Prior knowledge:
Blueprint: H1 2-18, H2 21-27, H3 32-45, E1 50-51, E2 54-55, H4 65-81, H5 84-97, H6 99-109, H7 122-125, E3 127-131, E4 157-161, H8 162-165, E5 169-174, H9 183-186, E6 188-193, E7 202-209, E8 212-219, H10 224-240, E9 245-247, H11 257-267, H12 270-274, E10 279-281, E11 285-287, E12 290-297, E13 302-307, E14 313-316, E15 319-323, E16 330-336, E17 340-344, H13 348-351, H14 353-363, E18 367-371, H15 378-389, E19 393-397, E20 413-418, E21 431-435, E22 451-456
Parallel strand pairs: 5-16, 6-9, 8-15, 9-10, 17-18, 18-19
Antiparallel strand pairs: 1-2, 3-4, 6-22, 7-8, 10-12, 11-12, 12-13, 14-15, 16-17, 19-20, 20-21
Helix pairs in contact: 1-4, 1-5, 3-5, 10-11
Amino acid sequence: MTNIFNTVAELCSFIISSCTEDFFVKYSCISFSEKMRNNEIVSSRISELFDGKNVKQLSDSDETPAFFSKLNDLSLELRQKKDYFAITGLIQKLDEALQSELLRKIESFQKDDFSVVLNNNRESTGVGLLPRCSCIWERKHRLSHSYNRLDNFLFNMLLMENSILGELIDKHFFLKKELFPNFWERRFLKIAATPLRLERGFDVLPYSADKVQYFKIAYKEEDFETENDLIWSKILAASKEKCDILVFPEMLGNPKMVDFVSKKLRDLPKNERDSLPSLLILPSFWEKKGNTVTIFDKFGNIVCTQSKQNPFRVEHGGVGYLEGITSSLVVNIFHFEGIGRMAILICKDFLTTKYLEQLMRCFKLTLIIVPSFSTGSYDFRQSSDLCAHDDCNVVWINTCAALEKGKESNFETIGYVRKRISRTDDEAQKLCKMPICSGAFIGKCEHNCIYYENIYGI
């Protein structure tokens, strides 16, 4: 089906480069007579796309030389005539006709370590196509009231524009179906999040390079065993509660943590491993100019690692210091039918509006996970409200280890889940706060804080 996806990409690229936002506004209110004209054009030239009056579901057997020749001829003709309404109508017909094939592609992609786009002309068209996983809390006409774009009219294909993505490099993971075996029965995700501990377990070291003041993190090796045992205890606690995703905060990992958790997971009996959270978002740790989160699945596999892209800036004694990380530019997107598209934005990444908007707009994210190490919650709350506007839920978890004297009022909430709710739901349900324990303000940490929240469909 690559030829068909290449043609769709070419048509999308033509519309995107040729039409202003005003066109998409007008097309959203296309007249009945114009819709009939578009249908007649397509049905008269490519009858194989229809079964009677209905759009037919295409399969590999339909992609014959004759079919592709007709599709290619019509595509070239409509572009030469600059018949934008008819081109957009053709794109919609192909999006509808490929629905079953795209669901098969999802099943195929679930068997791969990672997936590439469906079209092989992304570089020349500036457009990438993937199957668009559904989401039980996403509106069908998501964003149509706020963004005037071509993908407002597509429901089965995820349209990714290179012009929006910029220099970022996207990598896609279609999560295995058996990771969330009961999702469609329950129709909700159970999230666990933990601030982990009050103790930092690392030193912040300032240094200068290339005329800039930086800081780096040095971990205390004598604490690794205790820290890793605590991390494992949280994994087991979330397992008892039958959670789907467990999220840890930023910075509180260490260089020995990944191997420790990997061995623990491999050593578990299969029945115990099956009850683990489907995804483990481990604490990030700072190493070799990178601040990196490792993501495990419950089978003990490392799905991927996500690096922080935007360095944090801190002031000490009136002097500014920049986090000494180097951006990898790689952003990992996790796909799952019913959940949609997930991404992990580490602390400052979530607060960097341009970066957040790039990912939101390019991938139509439906869930963002935000591990942080921050002296306050206000800015995270503001960014999460932007996400809710776009049908995207947010899980944010901070850590008591970031608490500084004099800033206690910033820590009434140590995390929250920001959910999209129905217009008939109680407003109080949209922001589920995780209150900090009282011991944190007097330097006492019992290491037992873990919070649970469900994200339901609408």
